[in-house]
Amino acid sequence: MAPIRLPLPTRRPDDAAPAPSDSPLDRAVARIERECGSGVVVTGELERRAVAHDASHYLMQPRAVLRPRDTHEVGRIFAAAADTDAGLTLRSGGTSLSGQSVTDQILVDVRRHFKSVEVLDRGARVRVQPGVTVRQVNARLAPHGRALGPDPASESACTLGGVVADNSSGMACGTEFNTYRTLESMVLVLPSGTVLDTAAPDAGEQLRAREPDLFEGLLRLRDRVRGNPESVRTIQRLFAMKNTMGYGLNSFLDHEDPVAILEHLMIGSEGTLGFVASATLRTVPVHPHVATGLLVFPTVVAATSAVPDLVGSQCATLELMDATSLAVSQRTGLAPSAIMDIPVSQQAALLVEYQHDTAAGVRELAEAAASTFDALELAGPVALTTDPRERASLWTVRKGLYTTVAGNRPQGTNALLEDVVVPVDQLGGTCEELTGLFDAHGYRDSVIFGHAKDGNVHFMLNEQFDDPASLRRYEQFTEEMVELILGRGGSLKAEHGTGRIMAPFVRRQYGDELYSVMVELKALIDPGNRFNPGVILTEDPRAYLRDLKTAPAVEEEVDRCVECGYCEPVCPSRDLTLTPRQRIVGRREIADAEARGEHELAGRMRREFDYDGLQTCAVDGMCVTACPVDINTGDLVRRLRAENRSAVADLVWAGLARAWPMTVPGAAFALSLARRMPAALPVSATSVARAALGTDTVPGYSPRLPAGGRSRAGLTTAPANVPADRARAVFFPACIGAMFGTVHGEGPSVSEAFLMLCERAGVDVHVPEGITSTCCGTPWKSKGLPSGYETMSRRTLETLWEASEHGTLPVVCDASSCTEGLVTMRELAANSPRYAGLRFVDAVQFVAENVLDRLTVSSPVGALAVHPTCSSVQLGINDHLLRVAGACAEHATVPFAWGCCGYAGDRGMLHPELTAAATAPEAAEVQAGAFDAYASLNRTCEQGMTEATGKPYEHVLQVLERVSR
């Protein structure tokens, strides 16, 4: 039989030269638009280019980006592509590192509309769609004490689509509980359009009837592989380790039935064989009791030599860090004394962890491990700890490596995170030789870390791909690294997938015969090579050096970004316009277009960025809570808003700051007046004003808005008028509570509820004079209006400085975003260092720590839905929120789909579509539940959730006041 060769994919050599309008790609897209209607094809130039970027160091510009809404539309896309011979690539999370989710043809985004999770058999199994993240699935499994087997470090952002497509594993699962081993069944869509549910009793008959050539071909390949002893030995050797290089040919040895073979071949196929619409996976038990320790060894060989003994001590996790890792962690200043106190030269460390179902069980494991530790060649003492804070400190060393190296890379370079695997007995020597390669090629701070018990290590490189000399260095290093790993019997990819980076080396790892099997498999399922061409298999030996991403210098926040996508799941605009990653790469795309002289293109993208990048950003800062290099894209957006601000707007808002004692009651009066009118009148009036002045300037009125609130000047309820020298704290009632009335239109405001609770508990607080002139400054800061912000900062900080007796008393605020705003105001007041002594505390935290235990809850509600806010996350007070909520109700629940509401002060009135998109998943969950009350801790967020759900959200302190009367 003549060897089968892959058909070469159609490629545009020059991104600046678009394909002709009658190209297969254009015909396919036009047909999809006709058949699926609007909303599937991404029309914006900026968004198309922004979505092109993934976490890898490759970049290709797709001709079209499609977002199918269901499997039926996926089938239509497949059919259109097949009939027009257009190529396509499937993508969900875009966190893959090997280039498997970029394309210059059709990019099919299956994250936005494929997010279903169905927990089965009390958590023993779970059915998932490709767009949901590992963390989101595990959150739903947690009440059952279960979790997914794969535990990738990117679990907060990587989606199940990628987990299945790359056969992800992680720190603890090894090869026993990875995706391949925990799969029960899947619903898959083949390139031909055939949909197969492998759990169906007649799945085999369906496959034979609808795809007879594929059915017989799988049997033929199975017998061919099994009939070749050398092939069997190679597969058994490679798949005894973690191995995501090439296709999962172990399927031919592990399974007899063509359906079982096919579904397991789909795992790790990186979108080259079709689409997995859903997968049903077996889960693993979660062991809640954990002991962690750090073992420092004199050399990396000593560390890796200890791995078998430590694995024998029943450790769950064993993470290696080489000498460079330890030196880098020392520079952060966050490393524990076991690392900070040693002069690092050749040392290495193992982070070891033991897990059990009970505290007694983990103690027994730790005690038994002590004798193992005593027999090891250690460079210092070791102790296991079960304390969560101490454990977190130890993990900071391991998890902070990427942050430190990537965040401090030279401008214009890309951070590459690679992974390899070798037999455990080869690990020490491999690490030594890798370090030698780094030194030989001039790669500084190239840390080696990873999963020692699996022989799987990661290493980092910073490289500048637009420099020819650097590119030649990278090519030579890669060739030498390939020889090193294969020479030690390893695999060139353990977890991250083959992608584009290792596709040219698949034949070298497997040999001609097994490579030929892979080529025939690809041709059998995707004969036109239309699905993700160039990924896993390629005839181009230099393919890994093409389409490399460059990093043009733009601005500090942008230049630091590694495009990992960790920020995306927490972004409120992720399903409306752009994510933080896409805002940043959008800036890069604009700068790159300008550098190429394509000023018309740059201008078009800049105009689109105004709405997609600036107007619909909530500037909530949730992105920084997930970003490994600590970028707050909200800060970038605020700065850009300030640079683009209207002088008139700045002047107007500066005037509002000066007249704040009248502005707040004026806004409250307007809301109350509007409530008394027929709703059509204020709606029409604001619509006309928005049409004339802009939707980002004039808030729109909604009948769902409350009436105005009561003035802060009226907060004289005891003990608010207690003299400062008798008070436990200064109370700063947020002005938003005076603008917006209560959700029910009656009852105490949150400020009044807080004062009532303090009075019941006998806790004295003081409201300062002149409170009506003050504000946290967030409205000016978020809009990028510096004049008014400066006026308000100076006035507010001085008022609170004097009221708190120069920082002696804490200042308590009753809206979490305003508490955060005060903290930021203090930090930005660098020209007045005395204000650094001010201490700001959110009212929920103050009540949890000083008031709650002095109250008697007489009539708790049954079930309470709780909505934390982005500010409560930033302030670190969610535990206090849940403690107060737990005191109010028999059951307090934070929805699994919780996220920032996107209301962002007045952003929800300027762009209600932002709040609607941000809250949709949480709102659906709340509406499907049975709750007696609904609570948050910020007035505008309560309004946003009220509008989203139709349920009356109020401040948790209002609930507490009511149930403790």
What would your notes on this structure say?
Helices cover 45% and strands 12% of the residues. The chain has 965 residues and is α/β, with parallel strands linked by helices. A hairpin with a 4-residue loop joins strand 14 (448-451) and strand 15. The chain starts with 23 loop residues before the first helix and ends with a helix. Mean pLDDT is 93; it is low at 8-19.
Helix-strand layout with pairing:
Blueprint: H1 24-36, H2 45-51, E1 64-66, H3 71-84, E2 88-91, E3 106-109, E4 117-120, E5 125-128, H4 134-141, E6 146-148, H5 160-166, H6 179-182, E7 183-189, E8 195-197, H7 203-210, H8 212-226, H9 229-239, H10 251-254, H11 258-266, E9 275-285, E10 289-297, H12 300-305, H13 307-312, E11 317-321, H14 323-332, H15 337-340, E12 348-356, H16 359-374, H17 388-407, E13 414-421, H18 427-441, E14 448-451, E15 456-463, H19 468-487, H20 506-510, H21 512-525, H22 556-560, H23 580-595, H24 599-615, H25 622-626, H26 633-643, H27 647-658, H28 660-676, H29 680-693, E16 729-732, H30 736-739, H31 750-761, E17 765-766, H32 778-783, H33 786-803, E18 811-813, H34 816-828, E19 840-842, H35 843-850, E20 861-866, H36 870-875, H37 878-888, E21 889-893, H38 907-910, H39 912-928, E22 933-936, H40 939-949, E23 953-955, H41 956-963
Parallel strand pairs: 1-3, 2-3, 16-17, 16-18, 18-19, 20-21, 20-22, 22-23
Antiparallel strand pairs: 4-5, 5-9, 6-9, 7-8, 7-9, 10-12, 11-12, 11-14, 13-15, 14-15
Helix pairs in contact: 1-3, 2-23, 7-8, 8-11, 8-21, 14-17, 18-19, 23-24, 27-33, 31-41, 35-37, 37-41, 39-40
